[in-house]
Specification:
With 900 residues, the chain is α+β, with helices and mostly antiparallel strands. The protein folds into four domains: 77 residues, no CATH class; 223 residues, no CATH class; 308 residues, no CATH class; 203 residues, no CATH class. The protein is built from 28 helices and 21 strands. The strands form three sheets. Strands 1, 2, 3, 4, 5, 6, 7, 8, 9, 10 and 11 form an eleven-stranded mixed beta sheet that branches. Strands 14, 15, 16, 17, 18 and 19 form a six-stranded mixed beta sheet that branches. The chain has a four-stranded antiparallel beta sheet with strand order 13-20-12-21. The longest helix is centred in the middle third of the chain and has 38 residues. The relative contact order is 0.09.
Length: 900
């Protein structure tokens, strides 16, 4: 057949099918007319042969084999029967659900909770672990590089690298096609009252080559502007900053903008949605790496001592992750030898064993994901369990409804509806319910995002469900799956109905099999609820244990005050005098109890200095020693207790003999069985001794769980560092005092420099975030699961009571006491509850092996938690059975005996 004829036939077929869908009534009339014509024509032929008219019409119909069959064959020939059946089933389902709004609302609400929880959780997990940054080109080939080495038999891991190391790896590797480094920092953008701290991307020029993100205005900076010795003072604005700060004006190119210490020229504007390499922590502007580094650390390109950069690479085509890791490990070994040439005391490559790991770009999927990644995945699984409980609950409701419709279904089967069509209709009904629940679930998920964001994502992250196509598609797929899961058992059971039994009025046979299915679903709900509540209990106790750890200092009443000079040049003496004035002035602020200059901050900034002590060959081999500096009010300000000796006082001046305070652990380690007071420590062989004058309680400085480091304190007056900060102790709520303290101290800052004031709680809380996440989410989902399970138990017991009304009336009529009926119904509910508890406890015990690493000082098989959970489930089962039991007791025998 020629091409034009084929196209003509194809077009004709398309037009015919279009008419079959959208002009069905017209085609049906034409089909009726055609069938009537053929029947009448055949009957007329028979009449001409002498057959009576009635008999002729009967024989004509027999010849055609039944008008309905012919119609069905004609409809099948149109090729749209499947779609027509689907539309018919959809209309039937909608009519049925509209006729029972209470049932529809209950099912939709139940499923919506499960779908909403999963949609909200997916939106967070997708951003944290799976979604590539916007505009990233060929995400599958892009990876993050992690480096590790061995020091004194301990693996030192890190996700950051030095600038020189980055250059070494880029030049020596044969497996990578592109490389870039990035560092995100909070910098003040603007001057005067407009100055606001924002997240700024400090990136190499090659960073932009990883993305298909053409600037909407101007250009990105190039390699010549990001090169030694100084780089160029330029900035690329993020789209959001361009619109909010500059009103989206197109005449801003060439204008100046203060970014941190850099007075930069605006050269471009990034497109909408381009926020850097991590969507969860969007940046508002981009500046060249070398330009920033020269201002803050002039020697960054001549040594390997400043590891501050995240390195990303694009693998060459055909290079696997394992091959890239091996190649970069070889390059790392070469770079290690280059560093060793500058520092001969560095361990040899054979001892240090430098190793590089190429991992996904998302940090939670890398070697440093650790506990947080495990918690996120566990909570995702918990959300899925909540959905399963909701599905089991809805399946139970649909089973009860299907059993109540058994006569209707039997009649339809008797009238010729095939079982296949019947199952399709019932599945359509459950999918329609799930679709409505999906819409409601998306709205619920949007509301739940605020809770999840506070637990999982930085405050700057923007998340949502309604404006996220990936999450909406996920919610739609979950809704479809939930519809099929909840409708499968009811549809299958309805399709197996015994017509003879079901058509007999008043017969109650056929229930036991359905009861077994409903009982199984009910047990599954109870068991999964137990598992979730056990998890919640374990994480809550673990969180209690972690927040009860003695840090050795107070957190809630402390403010951390940091100064940012923004490039203002002050010598060491003037910089120290500025921090001294700030400390003195802060003491006069209403609500301030005391303040002290400091140099390091727990969990935020740590430092140490090499030292020696007479009689000990190498103190550094005895462990890690963390340094802090303070003044006379330091220990009063932070709340660290002096156990023996004294703290700093007004006699510890620059010209006085050097003094120090050591922690109790450091005293025991260096001078076991001796008093540390009066001992000598030398930080330089040419300097006199620094004398120990006090012993303080141990503190946690770097890790709440595994911090085995020891601390010591030097007088800040005697050392006068240039980068001193402040601790300020306040009365009442520290967060509410932060802004008044900042405003008061800002007036003392010279030029464009400024102070940042942060409650200490904001620094410490992220350390316990994984336990807090686990406790909060397990508890929320556990409560939701128990509520759903209780509703499911109530529905089954209430349905059983309704089905047994005749039996209960007969029992009461024969003399059964109310307490016997009450005991019987409550006993049924408690049997379900206890069986679910037993199964759930077994599951929780089996899963304890995987949960244990996520807990702190808490056994995954804590008997107290298991007993408490069992008690809660027993109470829930009792409460769920109480209302049906009370209804059973009130059954009127005279009415019940007439009920059939």
């Amino acid at each position: 057949m020629s091409g034009p004829h084929m196209l003509a036939d194809l077009w004709s077929d398309v037009r015919f099918r279009f008419r079959a869908i959208f002009h069905r009534a017209e085609l049906e009339r034409e089909l009726d007319d055609e069938l009537r014509f053929h029947l009448e024509h055949e009957a007329a032929k028979l009449e001409r042969r002498g057959v009576p008219s009635d008999e002729a019409l009967r024989r004509a119909r027999l010849t055609f084999g039944g008008v309905d069959r012919v119609k069905e064959e004609a409809r099948d020939a149109r090729g749209v029967q499947l779609l027509e059946n689907a539309m018919r089933d959809l209309r039937y389902a909608v009519r049925g659900l509209r006729s029972r709004p209470g049932f529809t609302l209950a099912v939709v609400a139940t499923l919506a909770l499960g779908i909403g929880a999963n949609a909200a959780m997916f939106g967070v997990v997708d951003r944290l672990m799976f979604r590539p940054p916007p505009y990233l080109h060929d995400p599958a080939s892009v990876s993050r590089v992690y480096l590790e080495y061995t020091f004194r038999n301990e693996k030192i891991e890190g996700g950051t690298t030095e600038y020189l190391r980055y250059l070494d790896l880029s030049r020596q590797s044969r497996a990578i096609a592109q490389s870039a480094v990035v560092h995100n920092a909070q910098l003040a953008v603007g001057v005067g009252e407009e100055a606001t701290e924002m997240r700024v991307g400090i990136v190499s020029a090659s960073f932009f080559d990883f993305f298909d993100a053409r600037p909407v205005l101007g250009r990105y900076f190039n390699s010549s502007e990001d090169s030694l010795p100084a780089g160029a003072p330029v900035v690329v604005l993020g789209n959001a900053l361009w619109k909010t700060r500059f009103g989206g004006r197109r005449d801003i190119l060439g204008q100046q903008l203060q970014v941190g210490a850099l007075n930069a020229t605006i050269i471009g504007v990034a497109p909408q949605g381009f926020v850097g390499g991590d969507e969860t922590e969007p940046v508002t502007a981009f500046i060249p790496l070398t330009t920033y580094a020269i201002l803050n650390y002039p020697d960054f390109a001549s040594n390997y001592s400043w590891g501050w950069l995240d390195m990303i690479i694009r693998r060459k085509p055909g290079v696997s992750v394992a091959q890239a890791s091996a190649d970069l490990s070889r390059a790392y070994g070469w770079s290690w030898n280059q560093e060793r040439a500058l520092d001969p005391e560095l361990d040899a490559v054979t001892a240090a064993k430098p190793h590089a790991t190429v991992a996904p770009l998302q940090q939670l999927r890398g070697p440093e994901g650790g506990r947080d990644a495990s918690i996120v995945l566990w909570i995702s699984g918990v959300a899925a369990i909540v959905l399963l409980i909701a599905c089991a609950n809805v399946a139970n409701l649909l089973l009860g409804r299907a059993f109540g419709r058994r006569r209707e279904i039997a009649v339809r089967l008797a009238l010729g509806v095939t079982r296949k069509r019947l199952i399709a209709q019932l599945l359509t009904e459950s999918v329609v319910l799930a679709f409505l629940a999906g819409i409601a679930g998306i709205v619920i998920g949007e509301g739940g995002q605020s809770v999840l964001r506070s637990l999982f994502l930085p405050k700057s992250a923007t998340v949502g469900v309604l404006d996220d196509p990936r999450t909406i598609v996920f919610a739609a797929l979950v809704a479809l799956l939930a519809g099929l899961l909840t409708g499968f058992a009811p549809a299958l059971q309805s399709g197996r109905s015994d017509l003879t039994t079901a058509l007999k009025s008043g017969v109650r046979e056929g229930g036991p099999q359905r009861s077994r299915i409903r009982s199984g679903l009910l047990l599954a709900q109870g068991a999964l609820s137990v598992f979730l509540l056990v998890g919640a209990g374990l994480f809550v106790r673990s969180l209690h244990n972690i927040v009860s750890v003695k840090l050795g200092y107070d957190v809630d009443p402390i403010l951390f005050v940091a100064t940012n000079l923004r490039g203002l040049k002050l010598d060491n003496k003037d910089a120290f005098l500025l921090s001294s004035r700030l400390a003195e002035e802060s003491r006069a602020i209403p609500g301030v109890v005391s303040s002290s200059q400091i140099e390091t901050v727990p969990f935020y900034r740590s430092r140490s200095r090499s030292f020696s002590t007479p009689g000990i060959d190498s103190a550094s081999r005895l462990g890690h020693f963390q340094m802090q500096m303070g003044e006379r009010d330091y220990f009063r300000t932070v709340g660290t207790r002096i156990l023996t000796g004294r703290g700093f006082d007004s006699t510890d001046r620059r010209e006085s003999p050097a003094v120090m305070i050591v922690s109790s652990a450091m005293a025991r380690k260096l001078w076991p069985q001796q008093s540390a007071l009066g001992k000598c420590i030398k930080f330089d062989d040419t300097l006199p001794c620094t004398t120990v004058v006090g012993i303080a309680e141990d503190t946690k400085m770097k890790d709440v769980v595994n911090d085995h480091s020891m601390g010591y304190y030097l007088s800040i007056e005697q050392n006068q560092p240039e980068d001193a900060s402040l601790f300020v102790r306040v009365r009442g709520d520290a967060e509410s005092r932060a802004e008044p303290v900042r405003k008061h101290l800002q007036g003392l800052m010279p030029g464009t420099s400024y102070v940042t004031v942060m409650p200490m709680r904001q620094i410490v809380d992220p350390i316990t975030s994984s336990w807090r996440m686990g406790a909060t989410m397990f508890l929320l989902f556990g409560i939701l699961a128990v509520v759903l399970a209780a509703i499911g138990l109530y529905s089954v017991i209430a349905y059983n009571v309704a089905q047994r009304t005749h039996e209960l009336g007969l029992r009461i009529a024969l003399g059964a006491h109310a307490r016997d009926v009450l005991r019987m119904v409550l006993g049924e509910g408690l049997r379900f509850g206890l069986a679910g508890i037993a199964i759930g406890v077994a599951i929780a015990l089996a899963a304890g092996h995987w949960v244990q690493p996520l807990l702190y000082d808490e056994s995954a098989r804590d008997p107290f938690v298991f007993v408490a959970v069992a008690a809660v489930l027993v109470l829930a089962a009792t409460a769920a059975s109480a209302i049906p039991a009370a209804r059973a007791v009130r059954v009127d025998p005279s009415i019940a005996l007439r009920t059939e």
